[in-house]
Design brief:
11 helices
């Protein structure tokens, strides 16, 4: 198991280091608070575990085989990304007031919103599903029971990324005094919004 686990964790690190929409959302919400950023991380990694479990049962093969199902999820994911991008740009134009309004309410409710955002962003990405289907089986030793081992690997993958992205939340939190200045915050909102919009448009246009 150790000979499987070490290469798997190395691969997980490389996957986590590849920037994507989840990274942008985690950093953006971490500018608001560490709690908000960490809840996005938990939501995103719940999605990672769900897709890994679905892949273990072979259900993501149906998604990969059905162009209609893949396109429906792809356009839904594009809409989610574009929505988040527009939200960030509106927040920048309003000097952050839009973001403050969106984060108003009891602490538990704000945490749920952040968790839901991370989960939705991950589950709306068909690439995440197809990637899990191709990624996890590579680390199942020949002759080993595939279903329980893939579920276990999906859990390890999610926990590993909680720690990895948690370091992003911590780092942004340490710099929040500088990053939360009005001009800097506005620029970061513009950049993150533009990135999310671009990723959403690309997802919608690609086959």
């Amino acid at each position: 198991m150790l000979s499987t686990l070490l290469p798997f964790l190395g691969a997980c690190l490389l996957v986590a280091m590849s920037p994507g929409p989840s990274t942008v959302l985690i950093i953006r919400r971490s500018l608001r608070s560490r709690r908000s950023g960490f809840m996005v991380v938990l939501g995103n990694e719940t999605g990672v575990f769900i897709w890994g479990t679905v892949a273990a049962f072979g259900l993501t093969a149906l998604l990969a085989a059905s162009q209609l199902a893949y396109d429906v999820l792809r356009f839904g994911g594009a809409a989610v990304l574009i929505c988040f991008g527009v939200q960030a740009i509106r927040s920048a134009r309003r000097g952050g007031s839009f973001e403050v309004a969106a984060e108003s309410g009891p602490s538990q409710e704000r945490g749920w919103r952040s968790y839901r955002s991370g989960l939705l962003l991950n589950l709306a990405n068909p690439k995440a599903a197809v990637f899990a289907m191709s990624f996890l089986p590579q680390f199942v030793p020949e002759g080993a029971p595939q279903l329980p081992l893939m579920v276990a690997l999906a859990a390890i993958w999610a926990v590993f990324e909680v720690g990895y992205y948690g370091s992003y939340v911590w780092f942004v939190g340490r710099l929040r005094t500088v990053l939360s200045r009005a001009g800097v915050r506005r620029r970061l909102e513009q950049i993150s919004g533009g990135v999310l919009l671009a990723l959403g448009v690309r997802m919608a246009l690609e086959g």
